[in-house]
Every structure is written in C-alpha cells, then in structure tokens.
C-alpha cells in the first residue's frame, strides 16, 4: 500500500535573544500565512522557554512559501539579527518537520533610542 505524503509539516520557531527581556515582554513571529497573523506584528505569540529563548510551532502546508519576521508585538520593536529582517523558506514535498532558529542581536526601538 502506498503511503500518502502529509499535507502539512510542523515548523517550530525558536528565537534566542541576545539579552533577557523584562518580565511582561513577549516575542512574536509574524508572516504571510494566517497561522502567522498575515503580517500583524503580534501574529504568533511565542512561549518563554527561559530568559533568552522563546518558542512556538505551527503547521504549514507542504509546498507553501513562508515569509516571516520577529517582533515584540509592534513594528517599532522589530528584531534585528544576522539573518536580515525578513526570512523565508518553502516546505518541500518529502521534507520533515523542522525547527527554525533565529538569533536576535537587538530590537529596532532600542537601536534608534
């Protein structure tokens, strides 16, 4: 019997910040998909794993191009990092679930302050 290809794959976003965020601060992933808020800056809330690590997962259709950014809930607090402001990937047929690691070196509102 032929095994069918799954229609979705799970992406886990794992964000590491250069410095701990104060209590009450939140990290979000926003992007082009409904599960990422369709570019609302507070699209997908991440859960604090420890002082500098945040994580959450979503299911994404296979073959879909995913574009995303990291924020603290608004565009003035967009993440700065070595990967550039907007990242993208495509979930290829035959691929497995994946973890996307993003290191935040600073935040836009702190860089212009």
> What is the subunit arrangement here?
single chain
Name the shape in a single word.
elongated
- Percent of residues in helices comes to under 10%
CATH A-level architecture = Sandwich
Name of the top-level CATH class = Mainly Beta
> What structural class do helix, strand and pairing data support?
mainly beta
State the domain count: 1
Mean pLDDT: 89
- The CATH topology assignment is Immunoglobulin-like
How would you portray this structure in words?
The chain is mainly β. It has one domain: Immunoglobulins (Immunoglobulin-like), CATH 2.60.40. Helix content is 4%, strand content 45%. It has 1 helix and 9 strands, in the order βββββββββα. The chain has one helix spanning 108-111, and strands at 8-17, 28-31, 44-45, 47-48, 53-61, 65-71, 79-81, 87-90, 98-107. The strands form 2 sheets. A 5-stranded mixed sheet has the order 4-5-1-9-7. Strands 3-2-6-8 form a 4-stranded antiparallel sheet, with no helix packed on it. The longest helix is centred in the C-terminal third of the chain and has 4 residues, at 108-111. The protein is elongated.
Secondary structure blueprint with pairings:
Blueprint: E1 8-17, E2 28-31, E3 44-45, E4 47-48, E5 53-61, E6 65-71, E7 79-81, E8 87-90, E9 98-107, H1 108-111
Give a quick set of tags describing it.
single chain, about 110 residues, mainly beta, Immunoglobulin-like, five-stranded mixed beta sheet, 1 helix, about 5% helix, about 45% strand
């Amino acid at each position: 019997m032929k095994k069918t290809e799954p229609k979705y794959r799970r992406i886990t976003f794992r964000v590491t910040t250069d410095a701990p965020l104060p209590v009450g601060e939140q990290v979000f992933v926003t992007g082009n998909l409904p599960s990422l808020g369709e570019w609302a800056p507070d699209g997908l809330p991440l859960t604090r794993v420890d002082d500098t690590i945040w994580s959450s997962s979503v299911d994404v259709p296979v073959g879909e191009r995913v574009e995303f950014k990291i924020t603290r809930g608004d565009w003035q607090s967009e993440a700065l990092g070595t990967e550039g402001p907007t990242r993208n990937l495509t979930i290829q047929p035959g691929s497995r679930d994946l973890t996307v690691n993003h290191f935040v070196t600073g935040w836009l509102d702190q860089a212009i302050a």
